[in-house]
Amino acid sequence: MTRLRLPARLAAAFCWVGFTVAAAVAQAAAPAVGPAAPPAAAPAAAPAAAPETGADRQLVFGSFRSADNARGWAGELGERFDRPFHVERVRRRDGDWYRVRSGPLTETEHAALAARAAAAGLDVWTVRGTLERPDGVTASTPAVAADAPPAAMPAPRSAAVAQPATPPPAGSPPPRARIQPAPAPPAGAEVYADVDLGLQTRTYAERGSAGQSRFQPSVSARLEYSRTWDDGRSGFTFTPFLRVDAEDDERTHADLRELFWSRVGDDWELHVGARQVFWGVTEFNHLVDIVNQTDFVENIDGEDKLGQPMVQVSLVRDWGIVDLYALTGFRERTFPGEDGRLRGLPPVDADAAVYASGAGRHRVDGAVRWSHHAGPFSFGIHHFSGTGRDPRYLPSLVDGEPVLIPEYHVIDQTGFDGQALFGDWAWKLEALSRSGDGPRYEAFTAGFERTLVGAFGSRGDLGIVVEYMYDERDEAAYNTLFEHDVALGARWQANDLAGTTALFGVIWDVDTEEYVLSLEASRQLGASWEAVLEGRVFGGAPPLDAGAPLAFDGEVKSRALQDDDFIQIELTRYF
Amino acid sequence: MGNLGRGTGARRPAFMVMAVIGWLGAAAAAAGTLDGRQALPDLDGLAPEAQGLAIFEEKDRRESGYQDLQVELEMVLRDRRGSEARRELSISQLEMADDGDRLLVVFDTPKPIRGTALLSYSHVEGPDDQWLYLPAQARVKKIASRNKSGPFLSSEFAYEDLALQEVEKYDYRLLGREACGDAQCLRIERIPRDEFSGYSRQEVLLHEPTLRIERIDFYDRHGRPLKVLTNEGYLLHEERYWKPQRMFMENLQTGKTTELLWREYRFATGLQADRDFSTNSLMRAR
């Protein structure tokens, strides 16, 4: 749970200068197909079995781009067939291949092994004559979840029977064994695609103050596609997201959470495209986190973010990591629509957003952050210069209806986030000084988290979080509910098979006595389902008078939320 | 276990003698066959504590020099009622010249936590540095490594069972020798030095010719038998490193078990400290 910002309404148009660039770069840097061969295999110490009389043929069980995969497959075959298998390197015009073969066989042995291979559903083929010494050892490598060789390679059907008399001509790619389906290890994988679909229902305690529905079902889809090449030094990531909401048109939205190309050097990284960047250490309020715009219709906790187009350079040095950002293309905050809940009164008309800067949403923002750790301490210091992510809200009339219009300002923000770990205690501080949207001001969030391992004699861990949030502007702080608030939280991690976790929190404004109660709990259901329960209760603010003027009340900022207590259940299926 | 690791790292002066012996041993090994079977250093005349330490120093020496390694791990968790859960992880490890090793663990399944990653810098002295990456928030969080006695991913393995096992983190004592299978095994008691360990002591059974760990009996803080680990299916990698394919941990007090299946070991693949083991690399380790 976190930052409750002033509810309001959405800006839709995605005007992403950076994206076209990113997409073009990603296209231009068209990835090479197929795994890169790793460093050469260990020196061969394997005794090539001396061919016995009549042992004049061999069975080939597959060819791989990667020596590791070949050796892994040889190891797995070794276990399965209880005999040694060899790996040889084959040079071709298209590079090196690693071929897994049986070693010399007599006619009888050949027939027996070919039959066993066929029974196991493996495509194998025969070569005659003796081959040069094998380029690597065998059954000393355990079973492997082999990535399949490039799909372009044809697998001869039942080649063991067809028996080509000679190895295939050098120009044709070597056949391969049909690898049994095995989960490819993502760390070594070149490509990963992941899809998850979510079904969410929000149930509110009562109808909205403008008569909105008590039930708000929605569905969501998220794809994550990533591929790396050039031995992991180049990469491309694509993560689109879509939600369709039955009640709120503005909550029906799509976003490119990520779409970027990366190049990784020995001590630097370059990323071009839309990314997600998080700064900060505290749990209830993400005060210094400013790179990405909040996707406010997704969740009011400020933890869902819109993809931010950028060019990021990251330098890894002995004295820490320096990140330099050029943020190309401003993203406007999303806001619930008229039929949505958890919104301002009146609703925010995001489409009517105005900019204090003449450059408007096309301004290029810049940021730099230095982060480091030493002993128990870790910290980051940053400066951001550009369009602030939090708008002010201007009461206005659009088509005769009262609305709030978001107004974005150019700001300069310098901030610090740090953490000190002493035993089970983690001490945390986020602080910033900002100018540009009114007089310069300072704000901080500070607190600690204590973890009790095996609490109450159970397997579970209990974390206690205490934080204090301060903003010197007090009532004038238009972009936060937290100016003098205390937060208490309890995080329970059951350490059970289902990975059950729960986080309960209460935020209390010590001056106005407004409070927010929150609960988030999650549990895995089998290997590919997850259930998440979320609930919030708002209280302490005097109720709205039916006839009262609809205006921003700095003293009781959560007044508009008082009717919006809700329980949310989300089921997600991962593919 | 030391399967996830061991450290080279700076030795204290008290270990200088062992370091010299280790160097001699390395020279002998280089001259002879590298089959992972070597004679133990001479233990005669040493107290059982020094013998135990000498054996683990030797084990550490034999397992060092790998530069870096990568391996895939599948965990199978079972409780008494037969419920089962699986987790798949990718593990990378880097040997550091002047400090403890570095470790990167990336969670592949279950899908809801895919991309979550743990980075650990072990230190010969002082607590380890650990960071957790939470992909849903793109957040890197430094976490307390003191929580070492807690379960690792809800398994019967505690963080400390799988952490990089620097020799200096225990006190040792050779209890005796006994037959195990066709060979002889060494039974060594080791007592964690860390006050936050979940164990009062462990009894480790080492296969003498190779110093492979065959079995560990864990005792809880009250001295009661807690868990038993058995390692199986050892394979020799790079003609030097013995690694089990299967580790089986049984909790004697709850009946729960965890099986670890290790696959696709790769050594000296050219991983680098800044590129592959910085907090930046956590974020792209998906």
Question: Could you give a short description of this structure?
Answer:
The complex is a heterodimer of chains A (575) and B (286). Chain A has 575 residues and is mainly β.
Structure write-up:
The complex is a heterodimer of chains A (575) and B (286). Chain A is mainly β. Chain A folds into two domains: 17-28 and 190-574, Porin; 35-187, no CATH class. Chain A has four helices and 25 strands. In chain A, strand 7 and strand 8 form a beta hairpin. Chain A is elongated. In chain A, 45% of the residues are buried. Mean pLDDT of chain A is 79; it is low at 1-52 and 129-189. With 286 residues, chain B is α+β, with helices and mostly antiparallel strands. Chain B has a domain at 13-67 and 162-264: outer membrane lipoprotein receptor (LolB), chain A (Clam). Chain B contains five helices and 15 strands. Chain B has helices spanning 16-31, 48-63, 159-162, 273-276, 279-284, and strands at 68-78, 84-94, 102-109, 117-121, 129-134, 139-143, 170-180, 183-192, 199-207, 212-220, 225-232, 235-237, 241-243, 246-251, 257-267. In chain B, the strands form two sheets. Chain B has a 13-stranded antiparallel sheet with strand order 6-5-4-3-2-1-15-14-11-10-9-8-7. A two-stranded antiparallel ribbon of chain B has the order 12-13. In chain B, a hairpin with a 3-residue loop joins strand 12 and strand 13 (241-243). The radius of gyration of chain B is 18 Å and the shape is globular. Chains A and B meet through helix 2 and strand 5 of A and strand 1, strand 2, strand 3, strand 6 and strand 12 of B.
What are its keywords?
heterodimer, A: 575 residues, mainly beta, Porin, elongated, disordered N terminus, B: 286 residues, outer membrane lipoprotein receptor (LolB), chain A, two-stranded antiparallel sheet, 5 helices, 15 strands
